[in-house]
Model the fold of this input.
Amino acid sequence: MLGVERRLLAALAAVHPAGMTEAQWAVAAGRKRKGGTRSTYLSSLRTAGCIERRGEKYFATADAIHALGDVVPTLPPPGPELVAFWKPKPSGVGPMLDALTEHYPNAISREDLAAELNLAAAGGTFSTYVSRLRSPGLVEVNGRDIRLAPALMGDAS
Done:
């Protein structure tokens, strides 16, 4: 198994028996979501019986867990440790996650969040960071308001 395949597989194994959406999986594995190379690795893992797709989520199989050997990574429990796990995954978003964690469970307006981060709310950098967090479901956006996804803090609300 190639290093990239192992990294992809380890990201899924970390949440076993749960699965991840394609966006969550790509971010957790530190890979781009789209591209021919990724498709090749996914095909190889699927053919080897290491992953399966059910609905919108991908899951590691028992064969995958076996292929990884004795060291299967696990995600930290919901709360600040899980937020810390995700901080370095999407590039540049750590300060935004910190600010959203401080405000949790409340939402904050785009303008107020941007001001806290010394960014322009209508600027490309701010929008890119929000997108990087929204795509894998790490934040919720409701109109002009943004808040940390409750699942990161172990809250089902």
Observations:
- The mean pLDDT is 88.
